[in-house]
Design brief:
Length: 83
């Protein structure tokens, strides 16, 4: 695996350059959300988010619940078929 360094540019203009495992930067800067360019806006409210779902944490929860419900219903249907 390639060695990655944090691409975050600090306030003094220098690059953080910390070793990191993520392309988006070291844990410190990834968490602080400093790399706004790498974020995608939530599909509902345009809040910048790093979530793979494409939704902010607020909306991702709602979507997740809907997906879960859908999955359970499908499982119910399948169990009726196999019985
Ligand atoms: Zn960093
Ligand atoms: Zn949102």
């Amino acid at each position: 695996m390639d060695r990655l360094t944090c691409p975050h540019i600090k306030r003094d203009g220098s690059i953080c350059d910390n070793n990191c495992t993520r392309l988006v930067g070291c844990l410190l800067h990834w968490k602080s959300g400093a790399n706004k360019l790498l974020k995608t806006p939530c599909r509902i409210c345009d809040e910048p988010t790093l979530s793979y779902t494409g939704f902010c944490s607020k909306h991702a929860k709602k979507i997740y619940h809907r997906v879960e419900r859908e999955r359970k219903r499908q499982q119910d249907v399948l169990s009726h078929i196999t019985l």
